[in-house]
Design goal:
alpha/beta, metal-binding, single chain, 11% strand, binds 3-methylbut-3-enyl trihydrogen diphosphate, magnesium ion binding, binds magnesium ion, UPP_synth-like_sf, transferase, UPP_synth-like, disordered N terminus, Undecaprenyl pyrophosphate synthetase
């Protein structure tokens, strides 16, 4: 009797896990993945190298993960490259970051176009140097008609600043009589943010273990799934990215409601 009961409960278990894996196969992948690429400096220091070597190696991971995300069918990939608070770093590190950013924009243009990526940025890019702005605008223009994944770089980005900029724009519209205060809703505010036209991130990945958001996409990540790894950005692999995606599809996104 005992054996029979055990057998039938095992059968139920087997059936359930088969159903589970079917459900997993059918679960939608994240359309928008946003990454806080952290830990470059610590990675380098751990290896006895200067922090800038971490940034140099971080660019290699960017290349790899952009390709991986596009191949996986992600529609939007947002990468936190430079925050509005990163200006607090020492001048030598900042000037190396600017050098690397310009070099990346020039070196990767061909590859961005080959992969048919749509290139965009968020953040106060107008405060970057004219040379960097030129490279940004060139790639934006050349990739404008592409139909592949959107690669969005967060440059001199801070979510609080972004929300302030949006509120100012709306206040100016109200002042000109183009908008009534009562008309302002979530959609209108969303459309005034730098991320206008992009869906909210489904999945936020942070490397290097910190359990914080660091002023990234505060409005947009209200219901994003968070995935944090202890690995530093230069050592983050394609397999890690796939692991994050697999964990994501197992999550039960309830958006405040009740799922069965
Ligand atoms: C992330 O790595 C890159 C930028 C913020 C520009 P960090 O430079 O923050 O590296 P850690 O966190 O100090 O190790
Ligand atoms: C977040 O990393 C910003 C980027 C990855 C560009 P930080 O290293 O600046 O964040 P904190 O200072 O640890 O919060
Ligand atoms: Mg950091």
């Amino acid at each position: 009797m005992e054996t029979e009961i055990k057998t039938s409960s095992e059968a139920i278990q087997e059936k359930t896990s088969a159903e589970d894996s079917q459900a997993l196969d059918a679960a939608p992948l994240p359309r928008h993945v946003a990454i806080i690429m952290d830990g470059n400096g610590r990675w380098a220091q751990r290896k006895g190298m200067p922090r800038i070597e971490g940034h140099r190696n971080g660019v290699k991971t960017v290349r790899k993960i952009v390709r991986t995300a596009a191949k996986a069918g992600v529609e939007y990939l947002t990468l936190y490259c430079l925050s509005s608070e990163n200006w607090k770093r020492p001048p030598a590190e900042l000037s190396f970051l600017m050098f690397l950013l310009k070099k990346y924009l020039v070196d990767e243009r061909k590859e961005i176009l080959r992969q048919k990526l749509q290139f965009r940025t968020i953040g106060r890019t107008e405060e970057l140097s004219a040379g960097i702005l030129d490279e940004i605008n060139k790639t934006k223009k050349l990739s404008a008609d592409n139909t592949g994944m959107t690669l969005c770089l967060a440059l001199n980005y801070g979510a609080r600043g972004e929300i302030i900029d949006a509120v100012r724009k709306l206040a100016e519209q109200v002042e000109r009589g183009e908008l009534q205060p009562g008309q302002i809703d979530e959609q209108i505010l969303s459309n005034s943010l730098d991320t206008t036209g992009m869906p909210d991130p489904d999945l936020v990945i942070r490397t290097a273990g910190e359990m914080r958001i660091s002023n990234f996409l505060l409005w947009q990540i209200s219901y994003s799934e968070l995935w944090v790894t202890d690995k530093h950005w230069p050592e983050f692999t394609e397999a890690d990215f796939h692991m994050a995606m697999q964990d994501y599809v197992k999550r039960d996104r309830r958006f405040g409601g009740l799922n069965s």
